[in-house]
């Protein structure tokens, strides 16, 4: 659990990472593990946000094994990750929808940030979807509501997609 929190701190683009490593106006962020390329989105209400969908926070799992943290090498930040689409949901105990794409490789973060960020610290709201670790997935919630209500208030959103326990 400790390494998940450490990854969250790194991947939520906390005060130092966001203010020093994000390229202004472009949804690209450089992390120690990789460089993330996101998308810029404008909601129907006109709120702009950078969306980073499907950021890995651990290595893809090996069946029935404990997930391992991502490795950091001197050149690992050169590895691009295209965080532009939702990743599959974890396998469900109860089928929520027949059209839901599921996979064992489902441990990802979805991060939403304001497009205009100064050097001040921003709060981070960490959202773990409902379902009691038995069913559910982050894509079901979408992003427009959260962008309009949180990003517009300069709150960074981190959607954690935990594995089924």
Automatic annotation (TrEMBL):
InterPro entries: AB_hydrolase_fold, CarbesteraseB, Carboxylesterase_B_CS, Type-B_Carboxylest/Lipase. PROSITE patterns: CARBOXYLESTERASE_B_2. Residues 1-19 form the signal peptide. The keyword Signal applies. The keyword Signal applies. Residues 37-157 form the Carboxylesterase type B domain. Keywords: Signal. Pfam families: COesterase. It comes from the Eukaryota. This is Carboxylesterase type B domain-containing protein. It comes from Panagrolaimus superbus.
């Amino acid at each position: 659990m400790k390494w998940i929190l450490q990854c969250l701190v790194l991947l939520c683009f906390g005060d130092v990472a966001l203010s020093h490593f994000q390229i202004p106006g472009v949804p690209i962020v450089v992390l120690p593990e990789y460089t993330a390329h996101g998308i810029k989105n404008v909601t129907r209400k006109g709120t702009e946000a950078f969306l980073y969908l499907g950021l890995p926070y651990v290595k893809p799992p090996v069946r029935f094994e404990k997930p391992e943290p991502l490795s950091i090498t001197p050149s690992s930040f050169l590895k691009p990750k295209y965080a532009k689409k939702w990743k599959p949901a974890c396998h469900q105990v109860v089928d929520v929808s027949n059209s839901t794409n599921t996979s064992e490789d489902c441990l990802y973060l979805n991060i939403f940030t304001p497009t205009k960020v100064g050097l001040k610290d921003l709060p981070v709201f960490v959202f773990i979807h409902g379902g009691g670790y038995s069913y559910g997935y982050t894509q079901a919630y979408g992003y427009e509501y959260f962008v309009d209500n949180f990003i517009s208030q300069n709150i960074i959103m981190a959607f954690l997609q935990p594995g089924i326990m």
